[in-house]
């Protein structure tokens, strides 16, 4: 088995824990199973008074369990304030994220989508692209954005940037693991018909798969690919 | 129960039989159950040598059975050549479609999407809009485009017009009927993971529903609404 | 007479006083006359040194008189700093606006447009959509953005999001009241050919009306509609 | 007085007679008054059975009277079938239009908009641009598209190309002449609230003017400008 | 050396001879040098009276010489009329192109861009995508559009689909061969500053390369990629 | 010789020193040589700890030498923090930039592009347009955005606003001066294949020129033009 994109070092940037599972849990699991390194950077941490400390601790534990199930190599927490990236000087965020990515030296970089409704997602998208500027020949050869249920479909259709995928990764063999990993987020999973339900996750994977005649897929918007 | 949009006379324009079921079968069923008139116009008919006559006859029979199950009031067949609308003088097509629509006088008009890969869909989209021009106060108060599995996702993402829905119709009570109606198209239904499979239809309805916290929905792109 | 959209509880979010009159004064007046509740939330208040207190007080008085003329049910002032929303933590703005909207429980939500040149408008657009996320089945069934003369046409055509309306509300019977209400803003109305002149307001209503064969209309960009 | 754009030779391409008056009658009148040559090319002619010969003759007479009022230098009629350009081999249309334009050698070229609902407009847009390809240093230095009431606002907002103007020509001194010229088209002018009414023409000019602080303007979408 | 995309069978669809060299001559040369099969399908042939037979024969000879220099495995000529694809029934074109592609079974498919000014390019783009529909699991895993100097920059910027590349192929080692191959088209190469000059080809390659920190590159717009 | 656009007073807004040379150095040089006034406003200044004071001083000296070579009339430094405009209250930035522009009273205004990857560029774009609102008849008659190598091509193709130029200025006679001026920025010029190399600058000018059959050009996206 070969990893998708023949990537050997993958970096996934998640604004908040669980975004990375919703967006590309199946792709990560497939890559890990094929021997690739999969690194996750979680940019924010819930902080009082917006988020209770006990809840935040539980989410972190869930995150690590989910990452273990997926086969994530390494998880970095940058601990910027969740729902507060607009108050962080952008140069500070850029520096921190860039330093974390530089340590990974990924050949594949997966980021959230700029059209997501959460401002944290929009800001992280931009910060990640600042790092990925091709100012040398050594940056990631492929950068693409994943979709996040409960974020990507809820901005303004036809007005703000739309998630129109052009890359599809077959996750037929790892969809169940993705769903199992998301189920570990007991604080985050919701009953149907919520977009954060297991039913919605499975429906999205089935639809994205059917679009390319696969049983399940994750879909992405390409930012840049260098061959 | 009230019909969606409070529409009393709905016209659905289908380039080929079954597009209307894939695109808005659940909406039609819900409207019919609520007492609205639902009229379908099928624009083309398969013709030799591209299509065998026996197959075409069977599809027509399947169409009428499916329409009966949905509760369609009336079905008109315009019998233009399938996969051949590019050879029909546009003024002829416009005249025929417009005459058919004028007999219906719909307050809600449902049409295929211009970004579908099939040229017939693109041409029908334009022809329907020619009829819907607000040249008097009596035209349809709402015009919107439906999505068709195996057509809408297969043109060029990010380049040709994207189907980014902004209207969602709850079909929680009629999804099963929609699927049953599509199943009647024995010539058209495909096994998973084809986009024309029952699994893909259900996944799409579940996803569109979850986006608006409903168990199932059909999604549309609004063209024009007058209040 | 029925209100537009059959809406019974309408919420209009205005970044600054008079945006709501320019954008949807005729729609509000028609809805109010038909018995709907019309709630307005004014997000900002001019503050020294950018704005003189006496002027701000006068504008507030003009606002309330205009709202009375339109038939507004209730006006809430959130009093964030005008021309200063970029300095307000977004989570704070989101919380305040969401709380105000939750008290109203609107079935129709009218908001400014993200492509307006004023940053306050862009920020309010996003904040309102955060509230409108369909995380339950009880949110507003329709969300749409209005156009504001002197804001919407002045960003970057073809580059930033364009106001391309797809919903038109007939205001033939309430255009005069809209204009009368705007005239009450003695501090804001400008002589022709300013975009904030009565002549421009009337021209826009005539044009939007003619597009759908009505004598006057207000136009909107649909964000999301659930049926 | 200087002509707009300092143009000395202007070519206006009209799919059907009166498009050029609706789209840029005021600009043509201003240019002619300032001493520029203004050439009009009318691409199509109504033909039986779609159009009655007597009517077509009347429209042609109206066209020439309107052009005289505007100050048009020269009018060429290419006589392709109206509402039938889809049946004309594109290379034939391109050749005819290109030959007509080559005789004029315009420095400013005004064409209809590709997002207009009439297929003839879309085809003429493309044909004109084929001629305008910068294959030498002698082509028109400026090419731009005009808007046509009853055509430009009636395709599919947000889906097909939108007319978002970025060039505004002050027609404060020639709006009355434009309206008088259009009034000469007794067969084409409609009562309000039709988009082809004098009221709609005036409203559009007022709105486009107000956007740039002028009493009246015509607006255009730039295709290409070379300095 | 590995071929770009690890592709083993590449199909390039060219509306007219030399489009494939301008668009992806360097990529083809690199792939061929790395052992991949490179198949070219030339869709049209110049026909009298638009094109003289002697010229057409010369171009064909130039094409084959250029393909030999690039290392093209096989060239198919479909011989549809150049500048006349609008007169070919679309189902006929689709069938012929699809048959040719089916014989190749490419894993990488390169096509012209839908926003090119030449109608033949637009039509070929659509026809190629019809073949590439993922109706089974065996289609090309990657489809992308190339840019053609003298075609891609000459439609309507900001209005018609723009070529905004997201895939870059390093052609540092094969740019000279690409230019040498194009030079063989003695009938087609033009002196500077024509877009079909050797100077323009080199400038484009240098710019596309610099964008990704390479000395030379060809750029593409991704249509669909399946992993 | 006449200046491009017949402009007599040109204002160029640069987020950081050298943006204005990369974006429109040739246009400025041509305008200056033709007798126009050319004013540059540099919005930011590097500040410790992000930037060393010695380096900042050197860049400033390089800037003034480059401006002298180009023929710039006057350079204003606003000294906001480089890479820190997100922390500056927007009303403060707007006020400072607007005051500087009001002193110039330009008839042509050149600004960076909103789709550039650097947040400073995006913010300056918006701030400049706030000043340029047509609230009187005296504002700049033409506003357009320039492209900046190492900024404009590095955001997210197809997702964020794309630089699709529609205005081309012939700089055949001033390209060498532009390159000489950029070479003065010893701290900023990079070796090939960096986008900030002299080779990339020349390639871009050659390509933009070839698009309009000129030996060299700078390209712009029009924001608004009033005639």
From TrEMBL, chains A, B, C, D, E, F:
Gene3D superfamilies: LmbE-like. SUPFAM superfamilies: LmbE-like. GO terms for molecular function: hydrolase activity, acting on carbon-nitrogen (but not peptide) bonds, in linear amides. It comes from Sphingobium chlorophenolicum L-1. It comes from the Bacteria. This is LmbE family protein.
């Amino acid at each position: 088995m070969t990893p998708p994109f023949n990537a050997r070092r993958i970096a996934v940037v998640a604004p908040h824990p669980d975004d990375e599972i919703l967006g590309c849990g199946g792709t990560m699991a497939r890559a890990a199973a094929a021997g690739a390194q999969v690194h996750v950077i979680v940019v924010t941490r819930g902080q009082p008074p917006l988020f209770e400390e006990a809840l935040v601790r539980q989410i972190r534990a869930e995150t690590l369990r989910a990452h273990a199930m997926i086969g994530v190599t390494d998880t970095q927490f940058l601990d910027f304030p969740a729902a507060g990236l607009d108050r962080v000087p952008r140069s500070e965020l850029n520096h921190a994220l860039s330093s974390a990515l530089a340590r990974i030296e990924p050949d594949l970089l997966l980021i959230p989508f700029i059209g997501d409704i959460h401002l944290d997602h929009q800001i992280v998208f931009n910060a990640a692209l600042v790092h990925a500027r091709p100012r040398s020949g050594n940056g990631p050869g492929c950068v693409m954005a994943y979709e996040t249920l409960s974020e990507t479909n809820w901005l303004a259709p036809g007005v703000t940037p739309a998630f129109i995928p052009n890359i599809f990764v077959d996750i037929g063999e790892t969809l169940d693991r993705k769903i199992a990993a998301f189920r570990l987020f007991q604080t985050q999973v919701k009953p149907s018909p919520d977009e954060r339900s297991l039913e919605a996750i499975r429906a999205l994977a089935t639809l994205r798969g059917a679009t390319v005649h696969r049983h399940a897929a994750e879909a992405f918007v390409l930012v840049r690919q260098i061959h």
